Amino acid sequence: MSLATLLIKIEMKRPRVLLVDDEPDLLDLLEMDMVRMGLDSERATSVAQARLRLEQGGFDLCLTDMRLSDGLGLDVVRFIAEHAPATPVAVITAYGSAESAVAALKAGAFDYVEKPVTPEKVRSLVRSALKAPEVNVASGGARQLVGDSPPMCQVRALIEKVARSQAPVFITGETGTGKEVAARLIHAHSARAAAPFIAVNCGAIPENLMESEFFGYRKGAFTGAEAERDGFFQAAHGGTLFLDEVADLPLTMQVKLLRAIQEKSVRRVGGVNEEPFDVRVISASHQDLQAAVSTGRFRHDLFYRLNVIEIRMPALRERREDLPELAAFILARLSDNYAGPPPVLQSAALAALARYDYPGNVRELENILERGLALAETNTIATSDLNLEPIEEEALGGQTHQPGLQTYLDELERQAIQEALVKTGHNKTAAARLLGVTFRSLRYRIERLGIE
């Protein structure tokens, strides 16, 4: 092969970027950035021109301004989503225009960059977009979300759609439905997969330590700060920060979190300078965040920043057809810790599981199966091994029985916890203090009793 032929082949492999803007000066600057990055680029000065270029195909990325002479950048985003969904598109928005940025992300934009546009911002965005992999969450690691019921198929399809984006995602659903599993799948199938995934339980951090845990601190910032330490944002740089139970954040911390997300930078405790970060934020809560906004427990501006794309994880009782496959999957995983052949469920035991309501969802099913596996004398798990008292009573032909001591005590405990949560505005740390128990103990009781 001649050198000329080789150079032509290399040239043909250069990624192509479509730049859409009606300001010639900005287009010139963007083209210079593309040249410095070794990329080919073409320009369009209107929505109509952009559509013509895109119909010809062959672009690996589109970067468009929000306001154009004959329309909006959103029109370009929607056109790409319909005709070239594999092409990442990013939008240039006016400084502080959060509504435009959110609208672009919801329309399918990969990311956005605020004016003034700097070479550093553009290069960071382009690098992230061009390394975004093709996503197919119907196989591989996505099988952690076991089941082919319509609700689970919808969840997997939405994960496939958002994995290529940089848009903040809010995952809602009852306790134990797999919100963190969904967050990890989004990260694993995104361009950030090789970078860290940092999961944070917002309800488990004492309020006086939140700022230092999230943003890090300098040496000597406070008593005990013997060395500089990174916070969650620094630790997740380049990757994904998962904020579980985000509704538990106190209002003072919500203000600081909002500023960090808006500015994409943080200041360590005891520090002076802002430190930029590159993090995708995924948040989750089993609480109704919109209701928390209505009652003043959660800031509406932070809610709209976090809830750009919402994924709702279905309760287990909403997808009972997945139970046989899900139970087999869990038992296969649990059997790694036990000797002998893989355990199986008797048909009567599986029927009993199908009638149960699972207030703790998949997490409770795992506990029930682990208990059954431990109590079973053979590798066959019977109904009695599952110890499902509500099912046992229901099977007795509707006869009424005096509730046992444990049921009575559970009800008293549930009532005391619910009253404490109401008094403290659902702040679990404060509720644990009010009840005189540790936070860990309270979390265990909430999960065991299925308290929402």
Describe the structure.
- 46% of the residues lie in helices and 13% in strands.
- With 452 residues, the chain is of the alpha/beta class.
- It has four domains: 128 residues, Response regulator (Rossmann fold, 3-Layer(aba) Sandwich), CATH 3.40.50; 173 residues, Rossmann fold, CATH 3.40.50; 79 residues, Helicase, Ruva Protein, domain 3; 45 residues, Arc Repressor Mutant, subunit A.
- Helix 7 runs parallel beside helix 8 and helix 20 packs across helix 21.
- The N terminus is likely disordered.
What's the number of structural domains?
Answer: 4
Predict the CATH topology of the largest domain. Answer: Rossmann fold
General form: globular
CATH architecture of the largest domain: 3-Layer(aba) Sandwich
Oligomer: single chain
State the major sheet. Answer: 5 strands, parallel
Report the helical percentage.
40-55%
Question: How many β-strands, per DSSP?
Answer: 16
Strands side by side in the biggest sheet:
2-1-3-6-7
Query: Unreliable segments (pLDDT under 50, ≥5 consecutive)?
Result: 1-12, 133-143, 391-404
Structural class: alpha/beta
SSE diagram, text form:
Blueprint: H1 3-12, E1 16-20, H2 24-36, E2 40-44, H3 47-56, E3 61-65, E4 67-68, E5 71-72, H4 73-83, E6 89-93, H5 98-107, E7 111-114, H6 119-130, H7 150-163, E8 169-172, H8 179-188, E9 197-201, H9 210-215, H10 232-235, E10 240-244, H11 251-263, E11 265-266, E12 275-276, E13 280-285, H12 289-294, H13 300-306, E14 309-312, H14 323-334, E15 344-345, H15 347-355, H16 361-375, E16 380-381, H17 383-386, H18 389-394, H19 405-423, H20 428-435, H21 439-449
Parallel strand pairs: 1-2, 1-3, 3-6, 6-7, 8-13, 8-14, 9-10, 10-13, 15-16
Antiparallel strand pairs: 4-5, 11-12
